[in-house]
Amino acid sequence: MSTPLLIQALQGQTLSRPPVWFMRQAGRYLPEYRELRAKAPDFIAFCLNPEMAAEATLQPMRRFGFDAAIVFADILLIPGALGQKVWFEAGEGPRLGALPSVQSMADKAQQAGEALKAVGQTLSLVRAELEPERALIGFAGAPWTVATYMLDGEHRTMGKGERAAARTYAYTQPEVVYGLLDVLVEATAHYLKMQQDAGAQVLKIFESWAEGLPDDLFESLVLKPHQKLVARARELGVTVPLIGFPRGSAALAERYARECDVQGVALDTACPLDVGQRVQKIKPIQGALDPLLLRAGGDALDRRVDQLMEAWGQGPWIFNLGHGILPDVPIAHVEQVLKRIGAQ
Ligand code: CP3
C-alpha cells in the first residue's frame, strides 16, 4: 500500500505535484452539503451525528478526489465538552454562554476525548470508506483561538478581527486566561489522542486568531500553549504528524516553525512567497491560495496557482487555501485549480 501523498509531504518529500485539500472543503458551496444540512437544523447536533458528519466529510472526496479528507466537526465542540453552552445563530455564527469556572472545566478536561467520541465514530466511518491513498485528517482548535470564543461569550465582539475582549482579558485577568489555556491544552490533547485512535492519520491545530498579537503575547498565548499541547499529546501517545496553522502570524511564522515541534506549518493568504520559502527550509508548508481568488476564478486564478507552484513546488508543500473556502465559490473554480495542479 502506498503512503498517502499528504503524509509523504509531511515526511519532508518534494513530490512531482503537491497533495491538495481545501480548508472547509465540506460546506455550503456544495449543493449536496446544503441538502444534507437542511435535515439537521442544529449545527452542533449535525457535527455529533456520525452518519451525517461522515457523509459531509466524504461529499467533497467523491466530487473532487482531494488527497485528504478532513473530519466534519468544529473547533467549538471542545467548549461544549467542558460544560460551556455553544449554539449557532443562523447567519451570525457561534454564540457561547457564560464561562464555567476554570476548576469545573479542569475537572472535565481529561474526559474530553470520551465526551466527543461521536467525532471518533465519524472518523472510523470515513476511514472505512476512504481509498487507502487518501489521508484522513482530524483536527482541533488551538487553545488561544478556542479561548477567544469562550471568553468573548457575552461581549459579542466575535467576527471582529482583533478579538478585543479576549486580548483585553489577557492583560487584565491573566490568571483566568492562562488557567483556561492550560485546561484547553489538557482537553485538546485527549481529544486529539481519541481522534488518532479512531483513525486520523494527520492532526491539524487551527489557530485562526494568531493575528494582531504583539510578540510577547504571541509567545505566551500561541507559541507556549502549542508547545505544551504538542508535548502533552505526544505524552498521551499521539504519534501521527501534526500541522500547526498560526493564521495571521506573519513575520512570526518562521519562529513558530522553528520553535514548535509540529511536522508541518500551514500558512495564510497574506504570507509572502519568500517567507513561505524560508519556512519551507525549516519544515513542510501548507497553503496558501487566497479564498477570494478561488471565488473570482479566471486567468488570475491560473496565474496565481502557477506562481505558487513555481515558488513552493521545489520543496515539501501541501496545496491549500490560505483560509476556509467561501460559501459562494463556484464548483468549476475548484476543478480548475485541481486540473492546473495536475491533481484531476
Ligand atoms: O474543513 C472542513 O471541511 C471540516 C470542517 C470544519 C468546520 N469548521 C465546519 C463548519 C472545520 C475544520 C472547522 C474549523 C473551525 N470552526 C474554525 C477554524 C478554521 C477557520 O475557519 O478559521 C473556526 C474558527 C470555527 C468556528 C466556526 N464554525 C465559525 C466561526 C462558524 C460560523 C461561520 C460560518 O461559516 O458560518 C462555524 C460554522 C461551521 N463550521 C460551518 C462549517 C461547514 C458552517 C455552518 C453551516 O453549515 O451552517
From TrEMBL:
It is an enzyme of class 4 (lyase). Substrate binds at residues 24-28, 74, 149, 208, 323. Residues 19-28, 137-153 form the Uroporphyrinogen decarboxylase (URO-D) domain. It holds the Pfam family URO-D. One of its GO terms (molecular function) is uroporphyrinogen decarboxylase activity. Catalyzes the decarboxylation of four acetate groups of uroporphyrinogen-III to yield coproporphyrinogen-III. This is Uroporphyrinogen decarboxylase. The gene is hemE.
